[in-house]
């Protein structure tokens, strides 16, 4: 686990102001490098997220013989020399997904199609996260997956795959994408159905690489493999990550006199739950410069301070905001009235148990939050701060508490925050540029 790294945060001295570009979308960065590596030809990618999670995915392909040219020092632009669906080589070592669930779960679909075996592991947090949800479907397709209790480390022996009709019990884009990637190698049409729609970046990106994916009116996803992926002739541009933008949108909604603009944020409706929930909490957000980037829409989001109120979250919005609940909990603890979240038990198996860890941290800061098995009830009010909380190596907990601290009465110390580097390496300097009071401790 990414331990260490202490943040000192809050309270904000003035309203937040300015324009920022947050880094590229994490989910799309993983998928872009995966499809590019498996395509015939060379793909240029711009707007890649140079966080540890996406770099772990890129590194896995390097270990399997794919060559990647980084086009700038920041590692936001790259050229991937694809080797085709059947061109990967057996890696000489165990592959390491680090902290990234998306990396390992999607790659399980790729490993399932190879004619060699791979052993994959991850950090301490990833080693306790459930993998059966991806091990079972790839087993049904014909791969052999071995590992104690279906936890990492796992060894996957790929093989000749057959198509399946996968009915997912969890609303998980990682599970869906794992099956769709394995389906590229299978004989016949694979279908996936999910209990609620989840982010559809894989379905949108595969056609750019020449592989159609269709979705029936009832949401059933169908993939008939064409037998190859082809590098697109135009570069792939990745929009800015709405999950990273949410930290600043919430901070600006909470801190008096704030007025900020977040540039070219991904507006995919299946990622926009945070915006619907924050609007329902009275957040003042408006869109400017709406545009299309590839198959995804983007817009600048103008956020102006307006005090927030609590809300009962519509369970249908949960998958579309699944990564944003830590910071929405922070917002709720500073809003007026009650915030109720249910049907969100998936939060307990993220990079940390996000219901328990946020409840512990916010209670230490003075919040009124009651944990529920599948969510939380938060009665908003004041946060005293003046406490030391533990982010438990979970990037989104660290950033959410840094946002909460902006409206606390006194400073907070946030320990084990180094994991911010997995998804948003420049969070602190960007937050400072908007006027947030946050810094790394020298100690
Ligand atoms: C992701 C899917 C979500 C999300 C994760 C990224 C993806 O996970 O929490 O951060 O890129 O597919 P689940 O599929 O487990 O819900």
Descriptive account of the structure:
The strands form seven sheets. Strands 3, 4, 5, 16 and 17 form a five-stranded mixed beta sheet that branches. A four-stranded mixed beta sheet has the order 24-25-1-26. Strands 2-18-20-19 form a four-stranded mixed beta sheet. 29% of the residues lie in helices and 25% in strands. Helix 1 runs parallel beside helix 3, helix 4 (132-141) runs parallel beside helix 5 and helix 9 (325-333) packs parallel to helix 11. With 443 residues, the chain is an alpha/beta fold. It has helices at residues 26-38, 52-63, 101-111, 132-141, 173-183, 201-205, 242-254, 273-280, 325-333, 354-365, 395-405, 420-423, 427-434, and strands at residues 7-9, 17-20, 39-46, 67-70, 77-83, 95-96, 117-121, 144-146, 154-157, 161-162, 165-167, 186-187, 190-193, 214-215, 221-223, 229-230, 236-237, 259-266, 284-293, 296-304, 338-341, 368-372, 375-379, 387-390, 412-415, 438-440. It is globular. The protein has two domains: 7-24 and 239-440, Alpha-beta prism (UDP-n-acetylglucosamine1-carboxyvinyl-transferase, Chain); 26-224, Enolpyruvate transferase domain (UDP-n-acetylglucosamine1-carboxyvinyl-transferase, Chain, Alpha-beta prism), CATH 3.65.10. It has 13 helices and 26 strands. Bound molecules: shikimate-3-phosphate. Residues 27, 102, 172-174, 177, 199, 322-323, 346 line the site of shikimate-3-phosphate (S3P).
């Amino acid at each position: 686990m990414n331990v260490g790294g202490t943040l000192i945060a809050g309270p904000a001295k003035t309203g937040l102001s300015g324009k920022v570009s947050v880094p590229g979308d994490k989910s799309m960065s993983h998928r872009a490098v995966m499809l590019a590596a498996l395509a015939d030809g060379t793909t240029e990618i711009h707007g890649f997220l140079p966080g540890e999670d996406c770099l772990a995915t890129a590194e896995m392909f390097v270990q399997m013989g794919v060559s990647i040219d980084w086009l700038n020092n920041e590692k936001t632009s790259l050229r991937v020399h694809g080797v085709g669906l059947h061109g990967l080589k057996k890696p000489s070592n165990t592959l390491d997904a680090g902290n990234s669930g998306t990396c390992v779960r999607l790659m399980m679909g790729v490993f399932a199609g190879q004619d060699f075996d791979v052993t994959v592991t991850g950090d301490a947090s990833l080693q306790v996260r459930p993998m059966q949800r991806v091990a079972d479907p790839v087993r049904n397709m014909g791969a052999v997956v071995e590992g104690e209790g279906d936890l990492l480390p796992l060894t996957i022996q790929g093989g000749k795959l057959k198509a399946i009709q996968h009915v997912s019990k969890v609303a998980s884009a990682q599970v869906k994408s794992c099956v769709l990637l394995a389906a590229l190698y299978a004989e016949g049409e694979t279908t996936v159905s999910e209990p609620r729609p989840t982010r559809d970046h894989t379905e949108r990106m595969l056609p750019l690489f020449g592989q159609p994916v269709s979705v029936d009116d009832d949401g059933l996803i169908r993939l008939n493999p064409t037998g190859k992926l082809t590098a697109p002739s135009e570069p792939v541009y990745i929009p800015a990550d709405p999950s990273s933008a949410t930290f600043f949108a919430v901070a600006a909604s909470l801190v008096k006199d704030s007025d900020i603009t977040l540039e070219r944020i991904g507006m995919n409706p299946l990622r926009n739950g945070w915006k619907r929930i924050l609007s329902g909490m009275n957040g003042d957000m408006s869109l400017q410069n709406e545009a299309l980037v590839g198959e995804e829409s983007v817009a600048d989001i103008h956020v102006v301070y307006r005090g927030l109120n609590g809300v009962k979250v519509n369970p249908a919005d949960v998958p579309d905001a699944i990564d944003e609940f830590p910071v929405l909990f922070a917002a709720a603890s500073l809003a007026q009235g009650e915030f109720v979240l249910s049907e969100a038990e998936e939060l307990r198996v993220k990079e940390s148990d996000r219901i328990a860890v946020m409840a512990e941290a916010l209670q230490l800061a003075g919040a009124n939050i009651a944990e529920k098995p599948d969510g939380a009830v938060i009665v908003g009010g004041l946060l005293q701060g003046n406490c030391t909380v533990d982010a438990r190596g979970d990037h989104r907990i660290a950033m959410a508490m840094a946002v909460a601290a902006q409206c606390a009465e006194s400073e907070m110390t946030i320990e084990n925050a180094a994991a911010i580097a997995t998804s948003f390496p420049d969070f602190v300097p960007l937050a400072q540029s908007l006027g947030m009071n946050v810094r790394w401790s020298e100690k």
